[in-house]
Amino acid sequence: MKYLLIFIGLALISLMADASFAQVNSDAESKEISINARVLDSTTLISGKTRISLWGIEKIDTQSAVFSLRIRQALENKIGNSNVLCVVKSKIDNDFVKAQCINSKEEDLSMFLLHEGYASADRKEIYRSIYETPYLNAEQSAQASNNGIWGGAENSDYKQSKNFLMGSLILIIVFILALVVLGFHLMRGFSRVVDIQSQSIDLATKERALKDKEKYIIASMIDAEIRSNKAKIKAFLTIYEETLQGLSDSGRALEYQKAGDIVQKQPALSRSVFDGNTNKLDLLGSRLASSVIHYYARIKTSPDYIDIKPDTPYNEAKKIIETVIDNANKLSETSDRLTDSFVQHALIKKLE
Q: How far apart (Å, rounded) are the C-alpha atoms in residues 77 and 60?
């Protein structure tokens, strides 16, 4: 009897500790859930007793404790004291889940770690998902910029003295080579040197101009698609607000009670521009690209439907229509915020 009471007490303590994450474990892979979480390690959060492994990335194995602490501190700074919004991708066990999380500024935490060179993309998890290209591009960007692990940050303390000596030697060699090259070019004439420099500057300028032009074109196309979707959402809301008005008008017969009705859960929206340019979203910047990805993750080109039968209670039918309208309004507000972001980033001119 004594051991039974001890076991029951331990079970109650465990249930109380997991209360903050009970909603996630009860409905995994169903919806976005806002939780208060803390950083456990470089790729893992914790809420209560539940560990949340960030989806789409793998931890970088390193023997440097300083580098691991640097990653943890960066992730803590990115989250701050605010809640994070997570979408559970899979449940490993009762105390361990895989989830994609964003902070209060709607920044994808996995994308942030990849861009800073603090994690590597999990090819198996992101394979053929809409996040595959952006995540791989973020990792490649970190490599090109020598960020984090790609710049040897895990053993920077050890390399400092060695790099100083090597740097001094390289500077001496470069200085000597510079003198030789300078003498050679002086012999060839200053005019050729000026011409080569001018050509290099022109080439760099043209390349930068092409990059900027491509960025503005992609931004304009995505902005136009979002605005087109906004118009479709508006039309969708007009239809279902009239339907709700008809349900609320007690002086009229309820049409669905005669032969039933079919309700479209969300508007049918376009995403062809986004799907055709996922490999170029990094031109928009990591934060704006993350916002665009999360917007299109909510869009379906083939919407789901709800069948309202004639014997459906009035309050239940009304609740279905109200939920559909509320979700459409939220998507409309997200569309407005995203188009405003394009204007704020000077990618699109504000329409009067």
A: 19
